[in-house]
Amino acid sequence: MTSSILITNARVLDVHAGEYLEGVSILTDGDTIAEVGSRIAPIASSTVIDAEGRAVLPGFTDAHVHVTAGTADIAAQAEWAPSYAAARSGHILRGMLERGFTTVRDMGGADYGLADALDEGYLTGPRLLFGGKALSQTGGHADMRHRGRTVTDNHPCCPTVGVVCDGVDQVRKAARDQLRTGAHHIKLMLSGGVASPTDRIDSTQLSVDEIRAAVEEAEAANRYVAGHAYTARAVNRALQAGVRSIEHGNLLDGTSVELFKKHEAFYVPTLVTYQALAKEGLRYGLPETSHRKVSDVLDHGLRALELAHRGGVDIVFGTDLLGGMHPHQSREFTIRGQVQPAIDVIRSATTVAARLVGMAGRIGEVTPGAFADLVVVDGDPLSDLSVLTRPKMVVKAGQPVSWA
Ligand code: ZN
Ligand code: ZN
Fold first, then answer.
1. Contact at 8 Å (CB) between 135 and 163?
2. Which domains does the chain have, with CATH numbers?
3. Which of 180, 184, 374, 394 is most buried (CB neighbours < 10 A)?
4. Using only C-alpha atoms, what is the Rg of the chain?
5. Rounded distance from Cα 297 to ligand 2 centre (Å)
6. Which regions in the chain score pLDDT beneath 70?
7. How far away, in angstroms, is 184 Cα from ligand 2 center?
8. Ligand number nearest to the C-alpha of 247
């Protein structure tokens, strides 16, 4: 049985144009938007909802999440029972959907099992675009061993964010292994990071040949590569090797901006996580050694966003929160609002994100033929992004999720 909702008296945000369609109705049919307009009759079975003049936006996409990150102590999490990690993921996914994120792109950890469980209705959460395990070199950002430990456990069932691989052949095989399970993208660790115990933020990781091998495998499967990178040096070599989305990039510079444009790549900053890690990281399991690295990137994030925005780079919404810090997800909107106009911040979580993940026209807009993913809010997000942190109602694929 297909269901239908008719939302009347809505103020629909046309994200492309940056203006509202006043007093319109939205009719859904099953998981899809059937009609948007001023005179729409319900189909016999429609549930009618009066939006009372509220703003209705397309469901949001968060393009950098770790839905399996139940704690900020990623190394400790590797020892969790997979069943326990999956249960914790279910809780994290539900929270994301209630905050209005109807699609999320996982950047390391989520697999086909979670995606299937969501599709089949065993879990409640956003549409999950997973990449499987992130690929990391020995001593890289997803190598969670402390210095004295020599053994790496690459078993696919361990709830780790990544897999360790070295050399072109191993990287190629690891990429093929993720693609074999239906991965939407391949994630590479291309510089040091905060949560890893033995690397430096300013390192580069994986050789150019290894990066190119992963890009070649992804492109062969009509997929793409996303790369974790902080410094201009790490960002630029990734862009030159064909990486399509750069994650974090806090220390990029003007030369990076030019390369983004030249290669038509996307930039996915994740600003909220550094604020959250600085304040609450230790409480939620971030080791002391990692906490000390947060300040290396925290202050540079807004400047990188401003450089990219002024340079006209395609910027996408991401958060990268871990453990108990997930509830801060929507604060990313207001943090970015400090340097970008509100409409551009909203586009980063809707139309631009849709282009990055290859779903333009299907997500990120309230138009006929798109998935019926909707967020209803009080107030005017174009003048105050903080209204997005308190959705009144969320609809995913035609199903109402929650009334706040
Ligand atoms: Zn990262
Ligand atoms: Zn991440």
1. yes
2. 4-59+362-403 (2.30.40.10), 60-329 (3.20.20.140)
3. 374
4. 21
5. 14
6. 1-2, 402-404
7. 16
8. 1
At 136 the pLDDT is: 97
Q: Are 375 and 60 in contact (CB under 8 A)?
A: yes
Q: How far, in Å, is the centroid of ligand 1 from the Cα of 142?
A: 9
Nearest to 33 by CA among 291, 389, 395: 395
Which tokens is 105 given?
A: 């792109």
For the CA of 131, the nearest ligand: 2
Q: Token match 């209803």: residue?
A: 376
| Confidence at residue 101, expressed as pLDDT on a 0 to 100 scale | 98
Indicate the pTM of the whole model.
0.97
Q: Are 363 and 307 in contact (CB under 8 A)?
A: no
Contact 105, 127 (CB under 8 A): no
Instruction: Determine the distance separating the centroid of ligand 2 and the alpha carbon of 341, expressed in angstroms.
Output: 25
What's the gap in Å between 181 CA and the centre of ligand 2? 20
Ion ligand 2: residues, Cβ under 5 Å: 107, 320
Most distant pair of Cα atoms in the chain: their distance: 69
Q: How many Å separate Cα 81 from the centre of its chain? A: 25
